[in-house]
C-alpha cells in the first residue's frame, strides 16, 4: 500500500505591484521568515514583477504578474484570476493595497469559498493628495467590506480610524504593524566611518537622514526649510536623502536646496540597495511627512540604534515612543528645533537614546512577533496554521 503523500497548506499573496515600497518590502520580509518546508507560498502581482518581486523569486517563491494597466480595473482580469483560483485554490488569500483587495476579493468570491484577508497600507485619503483611482478603489472596498473579506488588516491605528470613518466594516478590522529584522538593521560603527568617507564628510561630521520617495505626503519641502533653519544655527551639518526621485536630476528639489543655500551639504542618493548600512551611518533619522501609515524607515532607524525626530503623522509617534522627538507636521521650525535638541546632546547621550530605541523595536515590533500575529490571523480565518517560523 502506497504511503499517502502529505499536501502542504498554501497561502497566496495578491498585491497591486512589486516595485520598491513599504507594503512590498513587508511582504518580502514575511515570506523570508516563514518555513517554506511547511507551507507553499505564491505571489501574484496585478501590475509587474518589479524589484521586490525579483527578490521574492530569489527566495525560490513563484511570482506571477498579470500585466494590468494602472487605473480602473478591467473586469476580464478578475475573471482570469477567478479561473486561476478555481484551478489551484489556496487555503487562504492575503491581499495588499486597495486594487488588490478589490480584485482579489471579487475573484475569490467568484472562485468559491476561499477566505480572504485584505491589507490596507494608507492612513490618509485626502482628495488633494490622493489619486482619483485610489480613492475610487478605497470607496469601492468600503462598500464591499462586509461581503468580501474575512478580516481586514491595517498597518497602523491611524489607518484603522480613517477607514472606519470611510465605511469599512469596523468589526472585521485588526491592526498588525510592520515588523523589523533586527539581524539586518543593527548598529554598525564601521558604516558610520565608511559612509562618511564615501560622501566626503569629516569623520566627526554630523549627519541627518531623510529616507523616502519624493512624493507630496513626504513633504521634502518641510525638510528643506527645517534644514535651512538648522544650518543658520549649526553650519556644516550634512544631510543624507535617498529614495525614488531624490536625485540631482530632480529640478524641483534642487531649486529648493539651492534657494535654501544648503545644496553643497546635501547628499542625494536616489534609490539604494544598502539601506541598513546607510541608516546605521546616521546621527539622527527623521520624517518630515504630513501623512503616513506605519513608516518603516523610522522603525529601521531605531533598530539601527539611531535616535529619531518625527512628525506626528500616522503611527510615527507610536513607533518612536519616548525614545525620540515628535513634532507637528508642516512646521519646519519645530522640526529644526527637534534636531537641534538631539544634536546638543553629546555622542554618548545620543547613543543611549538610540539603544533605547532599538530595545523598543525588539520588544514591540520585531519581525518574529509580527509573523506570529499573521499566523494567528490565518489560523482564525482558514482554520489551520498557514505560516510557520523558521
Number of helices: 15
Instruction: Give the H and E element order.
Output: EHEHEHEHEHEHEHEHEHEHEHEHEHHH
Task: Please give the alpha-carbon distance between the first and last residues.
Answer: 33 Å
The CATH superfamily label of the largest domain reads: Glycogen Phosphorylase B
Q: Which regions have little confidence, pLDDT < 50, spanning 5+ residues?
A: 1-6
What is the strand tally?
13
SS strand fraction: 5-15%
Q: What's the pLDDT, averaged over the residues?
A: 92
Give the proportion of residues in helices. 40-55%
Structural class: alpha/beta
* Lateral strand order in the biggest sheet: 3-2-1-4-5-6-7
Please tell me how large the radius of gyration is. Answer: 22 Å
Looking at the structure, the CATH topology of the largest domain is: Rossmann fold
> What's the CATH C level of the largest domain?
Alpha Beta
Shape: globular
Question: Main sheet?
Answer: 7 strands, parallel
Any guess at the CATH architecture of the largest domain? 3-Layer(aba) Sandwich
Q: Total domains, how many?
A: 2
Task: Put the structure in a nutshell.
It is built from 15 helices and 13 strands. It is an alpha/beta fold.
Could you walk me through the main structural features you see in this protein, from its secondary elements to its overall organization?
By secondary structure, this protein is α/β, with parallel strands linked by helices. It has 15 helices and 13 strands. The longest helix has 18 residues, at 347-364.
Note the topology.
Layout: E1 9-15, H1 22-32, E2 39-45, H2 50-58, E3 63-65, H3 75-87, E4 92-96, H4 98-111, E5 116-120, H5 132-144, E6 151-154, H6 157-166, E7 173-175, H7 189-199, E8 207-211, H8 220-233, E9 238-242, H9 251-260, E10 266-268, H10 275-280, E11 284-286, H11 296-303, E12 308-311, H12 316-320, E13 325-327, H13 332-343, H14 347-364, H15 367-382
Parallel strand pairs: 1-2, 1-4, 2-3, 4-5, 5-6, 6-7, 8-9, 8-11, 9-10, 11-12, 12-13
Helix pairs in contact: 1-2, 3-4, 4-5, 8-9, 8-13, 11-14
